[in-house]
Design goal:
Length: about 220
């Protein structure tokens, strides 16, 4: 059976459990197995450029050592090690930020991003500019909760709903993207309450990985 490996680059097991549960709708009999793993070497949350840079070699080693997975998903909204990892394997490597944002382009004109912390926003903005999609970003607003606190459902749900309303009402966003793999459990509530499409980028990336694996599509080998 084919397999998709979803790598949580931080060391918080609760984030891995939450994002893995959100992938259940994508699991089908006869389809690729979806395996979610935690990168034990990572920090509790990837919240700075230093954290991003630190985990890159660990992500690459994890992928390079894998001889059985047919595709990989790096489940962090900064896509740490994405391009480096693509140089060490001929199997698809997807980043949740890249896939989540490009999915949003198909569902709306003005994208709003719900960030974890304010200091994440400049890092994401640099990435969106590099992707060439900065003019489609309505805004990015932070819930200002550390990654390890996202499992506090009462507090996090209230913050995310408030941020979502700010993005739709004040910034004019007509599609929202969750800016962290640890936010997956709140997607359905946000979409139902706010009335706009809400994308969990890990679901989006795994969905694309399933399509690539089932169609037998692989990137061109890097020489």
């Amino acid at each position: 059976m084919s397999q998709i490996l979803v790598i949580n680059p931080n060391s918080t097991e609760e984030v891995t459990r939450s994002m893995d549960a959100a992938l259940d709708p994508l699991r089908r009999s006869g389809g690729p197995e979806i395996a979610s793993v935690t990168l034990a070497e990572g920090p509790p949350g990837i919240q700075s450029q230093r954290d991003v840079d630190f985990v890159v070699p660990h992500v690459c080693r994890r992928i390079a050592a894998d001889n059985q997975s047919d595709a990989f998903v790096i489940a962090c909204f900064s896509d740490p090690g994405l391009h480096a990892a693509r140089e060490i394997t001929d199997r698809p490597v997807l980043g949740i930020s890249e896939v989540g944002m490009t999915t949003a382009l198909n569902l709306g004109q003005r994208i709003g991003v719900i960030a974890v912390l304010k200091q994440s926003i400049p890092r994401h903005t640099r990435y969106f500019r590099a992707m060439g999609i900065a003019d489609r970003i309505a805004g990015e607003v932070a819930v200002d909760l550390p990654v390890v606190e996202l499992s506090d459902e009462t507090k996090t749900r209230a913050r995310m709903l408030a941020v979502g309303r700010t993005l739709t009402d004040a910034h004019g966003a007509d599609v929202l993207v969750l800016g962290c793999a640890g936010m997956a459990r709140y997607r359905a509530t946000l979409e139902e309450t706010l009335g706009v499409p809400v994308i969990d980028p890990t679901q989006a990336a795994v969905g694309l990985a399933i399509s690539l694996v089932q169609l037998g599509l692989r990137p061109r080998a890097v020489n």
